[in-house]
Amino acid sequence: MLNRREMLAAMAASGLYAGPVFAATRFTPGADGFVLASRGQAPAAILVDPQDLPGVARAARDLAQDIGRVCGKDAVVLHQGDRLPARIVLIGTLGHSPLIDKLAAGGRLDVSGLAGQWESWITQTVAHPFPGVDEALVIVGSDRRGAIYGAYDLSRSIGISPWYWWADVPVSRRDHIAIARGRHVQGPPAVRYRGIFLNDEAPCLSSWTAEKFGGMNAQFYGRLFELMSRLRINYLWPAMWNNAFAVDDPANAALADECGIVMGTSHHEPMMRAHKEWTDNHQLYGNGAWNYATNREGVRRFFREGIERNGNKEAIITIGMRGDGDTALESTGSLASDVRLLETIITDQRRIIAECLGRPAETVPQVWVLFTEVYKYYNAGLKLPDDVTLMFADDNVGNLRRLPLSSERDRKGGFGIYFHMDMHGGPFSYQWINSNPLPKIWEQMNLAHEYGANRIWIANVGDLKPLELPIEFFTAMAWDPKAVDKDRIAKWTRDWAATQFGQTHAQEIAILLSRYAKYNAWRKPEQLSPDTYSLENYGEAERVCAAWDELVVRAQAVDAQLVPDQRDAFYQLVLYPVLACANLNHLYAAAARNRRFAQQARASTMAEAAEVRRLFRRDRELRDHYNLQMAGGKWNHMMDQSHIGYFDWYPPETDIMPAVSEIELGPDESFGMAVDGSSHSWPGYYLPPSLPTLDSLSRRKTYIEVFPRGATMAPVTVRADQPWVIIREDQAFGVSPHDRRYWIDVDWQSVAPGMSEATITVKGSATVKARLTAIRATAQQEREAKGAWGGLAGAFCVPATGFARSVEARGVRWEPIPDYGQGPAAMSVFPVTAEPFPDPATAPRLEYEIFLAEAGSYHVDLVTSPTLEVYPGRHLAVAIGLDDSAPVTQAVFTPEAGAAQDFLGSRHAANTAANARRMPFTIKPDRPGRHVLKLFMHDPTIVVQNIIIYRSDLPQSYFGPPPMERG
Amino acid sequence: MLNRREMLAAMAASGLYAGPVFAATRFTPGADGFVLASRGQAPAAILVDPQDLPGVARAARDLAQDIGRVCGKDAVVLHQGDRLPARIVLIGTLGHSPLIDKLAAGGRLDVSGLAGQWESWITQTVAHPFPGVDEALVIVGSDRRGAIYGAYDLSRSIGISPWYWWADVPVSRRDHIAIARGRHVQGPPAVRYRGIFLNDEAPCLSSWTAEKFGGMNAQFYGRLFELMSRLRINYLWPAMWNNAFAVDDPANAALADECGIVMGTSHHEPMMRAHKEWTDNHQLYGNGAWNYATNREGVRRFFREGIERNGNKEAIITIGMRGDGDTALESTGSLASDVRLLETIITDQRRIIAECLGRPAETVPQVWVLFTEVYKYYNAGLKLPDDVTLMFADDNVGNLRRLPLSSERDRKGGFGIYFHMDMHGGPFSYQWINSNPLPKIWEQMNLAHEYGANRIWIANVGDLKPLELPIEFFTAMAWDPKAVDKDRIAKWTRDWAATQFGQTHAQEIAILLSRYAKYNAWRKPEQLSPDTYSLENYGEAERVCAAWDELVVRAQAVDAQLVPDQRDAFYQLVLYPVLACANLNHLYAAAARNRRFAQQARASTMAEAAEVRRLFRRDRELRDHYNLQMAGGKWNHMMDQSHIGYFDWYPPETDIMPAVSEIELGPDESFGMAVDGSSHSWPGYYLPPSLPTLDSLSRRKTYIEVFPRGATMAPVTVRADQPWVIIREDQAFGVSPHDRRYWIDVDWQSVAPGMSEATITVKGSATVKARLTAIRATAQQEREAKGAWGGLAGAFCVPATGFARSVEARGVRWEPIPDYGQGPAAMSVFPVTAEPFPDPATAPRLEYEIFLAEAGSYHVDLVTSPTLEVYPGRHLAVAIGLDDSAPVTQAVFTPEAGAAQDFLGSRHAANTAANARRMPFTIKPDRPGRHVLKLFMHDPTIVVQNIIIYRSDLPQSYFGPPPMERG
């Protein structure tokens, strides 16, 4: 099924999947090299020195089975005393595998540079390594995870997706597997600890584990640890709401240690103890209060037990203290006294660590997480021991809040990032589906990397599924950020798609994967409402629905071409998100129409109500297919998360259908009409209808909609009194075939330059006249507007990428981040660590050619990403200037008044919900015609998506006017 | 049917209906006096001198028929040359009726004091007035309306309701009518011109007149003028949207003049011309623009034609100019230039008046109306000729904006008031039903009277029906304000009810009439939404529904006892408004439950959706009965006005059912619970449920609701862990019998003084524990709280009338206005013309005994009426003080920022929608226990309804906590 040659060609440039072993793997029958497996022969046997560290043998066993998955017969894992066959795969840890060490000492294995490295390995073919062995493929790790990752790297290279079990990705069968001879070095990773946090695991993960494993026990965690190791994720915050990792199954912690998983606990669970352990037993500790000021001894004993229990199992110990259950610390009265209390807590915690483990605290990895309100203690000057990793949490919506200052970077413990791909909490929850476009993850995590927050990266991944794609991307970036630059995200996605589904559809699937996440990030599904996209202006709601419809058609076309055993993987990774999110957007559009149509007294109001009910049922059918049909019900409950009808920050108890209305039908034969750009209807509204002005530069069309108000409608005619008006009948946006749309366009050749007026008469049971104004550019206007953005009437949008010139300064320049934000790309400043340019005159800039029909004053709304001022002392400013006028510099207003608030205030919440922030500027052209709009860098890390330019009021819409075709 | 004796007893004290003739009327068979009619005899004949003024003979003919309605045989109206019978009723105008003048000259008729009076008359029996005539009942008017009103006064006295035709009020048949001999003087009225404005007449009045009369022609206006004269309404602004009084039927204007109706045109239609005349023909006038700056000659000609056409028919000519069709004047660039333009317009208009009528303009009644934006021109110093009446418009919602300063009051033209009982426009429309409680009309119009705005009162009455009651009240006040003081409004209403329905049910009907209007004024039906009344807090929504339910029961009980021919009148005047408004309040409550229950995942969500649909249908059934069944369809279309689903200031094109939602049912057997004071539900919400604290002083109860979330519910038990908790099962607020409420009360005898805690455990398919805190007062607290307002926990409300002491100063004091506002009465300052008291120390005050459980800081929200600062230079201030602490004076903030705005800004709009304004104060008791809260007058005309006192957050509700039972 996989066309190997195509895949290789596609993957050659990727540092992620086309690792050197991957590149050295040959499937062509008879291909030369170390023959791992070949039809008719036993696969090479796998050997691990029995003295090697735990976990290596486990990875070796997985590799043996993986070989079987590919070639039909598992490899033999050799045991002590077994006779060595002619071909073996030897896996081991340098300094812990006598077999390996012997080969190295004998000069047969080149381990130069490996010793002391973190999670690095060498894969090398060795001829005649041992007596009776013709050839060995040796995988030697600098440490045990190096060896483990080396084994799984071979698995991946021969075609085992890390998601083979977790996303039912089928394996391509091969008759022959050979590894070209040579020595391949991999590692170390850029980020030492790469983690995930299983969080807010009810109702999905907890119900699924209960049904499939009987709880979050070692059977479940074994599956998870295997996935993590295949993805080279080495750090875990385990599920903790109503779960206690170390207590629920005593085998859990031992298994983690065996598998080489570094355990931790979440930001609000210090000292290796789950919150649930406290809630279940708090009355046994002092006065039972989670309060260090009033129950110090009780809490200390609780802490001590955690460290003692964990012993020397590899861990990063979360220190500090928050409130009881992911809430803010109970204040002791003042910020200063709270800071002192926290310092006392941390001092005590480190004393406990040192006492229990019998070694200095600074030798034990620890992390203190600045989550939400915790920032204020740090900002107030809390002193943190230098060896503790200082972890900056994002804003819960994937926008980093803080990065290390250059003056801070040399702290011994380094810095970490706690990132969210899933959230249960403020400013709003999103737990259902993937709404994390990779370019956005890249843009923010690239800052983390470049600014040196590289010790730990951990992502809150909710129930794990359905975040397969962003989890792997996040981890891949952490492993090797340089391998995933902004211009190769699409390529990376394509390679990922090829890994799961083969080359044939990889490009198309990559588009589907990136688009559905991108559309979901316009506004997260949980934040959608009937109000989100405008029904009236810019055909916005229907454009969004059309974009989703296109994805549905393309996804269904791919689905129809896949072979049956790919279908389950495709449904969970691609088809379900596309269908369910498209359905959801249609649901809210139908609810919006129901409400608006009721206000317009359309008879189709009731048809739209029925459509809402149908789409609500459809959402459940899609979910039920995921839970109950897909993979034979293997993932039952994984899609239980409610996601429709949010009314607060937390998810609704059950999905709530958008409310729908009914009206009394009007008289038989009666009709109504509505026009583009207005919510009103006629006959009825007291002012006459007026259509948006059309102009020959913008080349937009407009429309009238005519609809029955009663059970029947008398014939209606739509006529213009001017020959240059072109009218074309169409179906209205909605489900009723009786609601008609009449597109109104202008035959620009037939109308004189300048302004012309026409009247469109709609005649049925009554007569309504709508006014249309058309402006044709004069010859001079046409000359001046050529190649420029802008028209003769109305607001217009210039995509940030639509510049005519980019002027760099001191090696700093604006560059596009492809596929980021609302349009095809967004512009940001690179390198991201550039110093600010306080003077626009010398700053990198973009120049946009624009055409303004009149002199006067214009609003310029800069649509930026809602990212935050990560670098204390900088204000994320940018400047706008027109022609040679003095540029005006403005600072992004976030976090503004909200800066002192735990969740950064309601304005930032609104910005994150909209995933955009508007910065208002003004320009004042002194003459009509062509101008140059200039965008000057001030601070790095700002991201500009669109520029909206308008004279007075901007019609209400979510995005503003759509970017025009270039004139 | 009418028990005459009871009626007389009831009406004796009323100056409105128990006029002297009414008091002199006897129905007892054989009663002495002038016998108007008696079984077996011809009624007294009616005589009008043929030379008398027009209109008098018309009233005489109506009287003749009215006598027939009462006694079964019309009186004969004598014509010139008829032989005079033994008993005659002679009606005439002093100085215009030779017959009358001869009697007066002969000393047979005492007309002393009558000549020169405005609309006055004498009703006197004269023995042997003419040869062959034994006795005459002479009705002599000081002017023709005096004579006309005299005739209708006799009609009313013998039992003809002014509404006999307009509200189908049946007439009681009598065998004998005698008028006790004597001389009865009536008039003149306090307000010279008492008017109504038929406005926004589509869809009701216009459709009704089209169907019943073929348009707004003289047949229709004849009916209207008769009603007006019976009600002594002498001034009319005719219907003008798509209607033109003088053009639609050329007989209209002549008929008005004949009937003694003073015609005018609305505030935005100057010079006796309808707006429609301009829109239909504007192209014939100059450049066709309604713009005095650019089309002066065209507009002048339009004006001139209006004055010429009206000639010497009695009128008050509206002068000035607004924009094209009840919009603001198009500005000429600055306020100063606009003022100059308006002065030019008025000068030109007066020149036209003088030229066309051939007499000085100052001899012709004129009015200039300060409507909405027009105030700004006056405030900017526009000079108005002294003889023009300056009419102050209210805020469109019945709150006066301006009253004459004492320094202004001697202007020759005097002042008028334009008042709204119906509105199509900003801040919101209310056109459906009567939402004008009489005490509010009294309170505001009493100010107009006392401050000398007495020349003209005109009310916008929409379609006229169903505003029968407030129209008559407004007019009655205008006739004789002293006869309707605030303490006699209930009495007046009872008398009005007795006039329409007889004495038996008058008291009950008066209560129904006043209550439904009062409840509608809490929030006008058009402004209701599912959000209006709180579902969670204070049982508010259910209290409102219960209040309506009580009216429904009482109204239906009356209806069942009425005789059949009273039913139509009762339906239109009482039953329909009660049923329809109760239904509407239930509709929104059901919609609110649907939404909240969906959020709580109640299985009953769908039952509430069905209830919304049922109540929406019921609204239409009630309307259809009014239109199609009642009085045989006589009033078809009068109830066509849409009133459900407002989404803007204008009414929806058709009624829009509140949107309803659906949810997916939860698992079988599952349940949820909710608690008083919270919108959350459990299992689900992350914080545990907590009930409002109960205390032994407030004696409130609280509740838990338990409901199925699936198709079935396992048995649920609700148990407390403390013996002092009393639990009583009940039906929850909603339609599903499966949703249960458990009332939680405390057996205060069984609980110790101080704070006690209990846990209520709800156990079914899951277990939920709710915490209850109860505070029992100590013996000292009980002593201190005795007779004081306040409790030990939570916010409390002190009704404004709940004072312990009222301290007057210089004859000024706080007094209750009964039945005003949210509670049984509101407090205002009398006399209303009192000067301000800037120093609280010497000001009239109210003292409230309150009990505060703790020392510290409390919010005090003074709930006042949203009336405006009618007296320039005063700020409607009031002061609050606690015990002997220094009082804090605050000015009502309206119109605040909105003062400069045409509609007084969004805050005033919100206040008028809520029909209340909250003024925030703070008190800081330095010890717990009993205190005296003092309310000091600063300015007159403020009205205080309630005082809400709370420590920190006030639970969201519409009214705040309900007034408690006095402790």
From TrEMBL, chains A, B:
Residue ranges constituting the Gylcosyl hydrolase 115 C-terminal domain according to the UniProt record: 794-962
Keyword list, A-Z: Hydrolase, Signal
Cleavable signal peptide: 1-23
SUPFAM superfamilies recorded: beta-N-acetylhexosaminidase-like domain
Pfam families, alphabetized: GH115_C, Glyco_hydro_115
Entries under Gene3D superfamilies matching the protein: 1.20.58.2150, 2.60.120.1620, Chitobiase/beta-hexosaminidase domain 2-like (3.30.379.10), Glycosyl hydrolase family 115 (3.20.20.520)
Name listed for the protein in its UniProt record: Glycosyl hydrolase 115 family protein
